[in-house]
Amino acid sequence: MISLVFCFAFFSFVVSLVRRGRHSCGGALVADDIVVTAAHCISGSFPEMYEIRVGSSFSQKGGDLYPVGDFRWHPDFSYSKMDSDIAVLWLKKKVVFSDRVAPIEMADKDEEILDGDVTIVTGWGNLFETGGMPHILQRVAVPKVNEQQCNAAYQPVYTITNNMLCAGTSEGGKDACQGDSGGPLVHNNKLAGVVSWGLGCARPDYPGVYAKVSALRTWLDNNIAMLRWKHVQRSVE
Questions:
Q1: Which domain holds residue 86?
Q2: In 110-200, at which residue ranges do the beta strands (DSSP E only) sit?
Q3: Peptidase S1 domain: from which residue to which, for each copy (predicted)?
Q4: Tens digit of each residue's pLDDT, the chain (237 residues)
Q5: Which of 55, 87, 194, 199 has the fewest CB atoms within 10 Å, i.e. the most exposed one?
Q6: 171 and 165 in contact (C-beta within 8 Å)?
Q7: Residue 130: left if φ>0, alpha if ψ -120 to 50, beta else—which one?
Q8: How far apart are CA 88 and CA 73, in angstroms?
Q9: Which residues, listed in sequence order, are joined to residue 179 by a DSSP beta bridge?
């Protein structure tokens, strides 16, 4: 991430998705048992391969680790289109909240962000397109980009769908990068997007692309409920 180091206490919902002991993606804690991340972070894998780290500004140490018990990624996600790049994780053990660990509210269904409004993206991703992954959480402020403008930039390789939103600057220099995938894009203190894809990192005229939480809110709510019900039923049996 081409960005700045900041005070973690203001972003206590940010989690590191740990795969076999190493940071692999970001995520957002939205309840004491649920994390939202990107589908491409987990598709084709198994829940027992993952833990989440909460309450730490470091990707490899500190805070507390919680094992992932189950997950679902959006059935419409594919690498060929990168549409609906969103997933929910159910945690085996409920997270204990504190001044360093707290959930974030998700954007409401069909809630929109005005073009040019400032959003905040956070993560432990590369500082440069060529590498330089930090161990301390980073953040960057990027304005929301008009969908038509974003679509024109990425045609004909990808199409910007209604399930995506874009954020970045025309001059480049500010963006998410490799390792930030699945992390939160925040607007008005709500989870508005999930880091999904882009062309390189922070290139001029190529904004970052995010899964749009408000457009996918119904799927999120339904699948959070289904995961909880599934495991309540198992505990009763």
A1: 14-103+216-232
A2: 118-123, 138-145, 164-167, 184-187, 190-197
A3: 1-225
A4: 555 545 455 689 999 999 999 999 999 999 999 999 999 999 999 999 999 999 999 999 999 999 999 999 999 999 999 999 999 999 999 999 999 999 999 999 999 999 999 999 999 988 888 777 788 899 999 999 999 999 999 998 899 999 999 999 988 888 898 889 999 999 999 999 999 999 988 899 999 999 999 999 999 999 999 999 998 766 545
A5: 199
A6: no
A7: alpha
A8: 6
A9: none
CB 84 within 8 A of CB 220: no
Distance separating alpha carbons of residues 25 and 177, to the nearest angstrom: 11
Main-chain phi, psi angles of 217, to 5 degrees: -65, -40
Whether residue 155 is contained in a domain is answered as yes
Contact status, residue 22 vs residue 135, Cβ threshold 8 Å: no
Rounded CA gap, 42 and 30, in Å? 18
SS3 149: helix
One-letter amino acid of 12: S
What residue has token string 């289109």? Answer: 81
Closest residue by Cα to residue 166 from 122, 205, 128, 139 = 205
List active site positions: 40, 85, 181
Domain check: are 99 and 127 in the same one?
no
Helical spans, DSSP H, in 63-160: 147-154
Is 87 in contact with 71 (CB distance < 8 Å)? Answer: yes
Cα R_g (the chain), whole angstroms:
16
- Domain shared by 97 and 110, yes or no: no
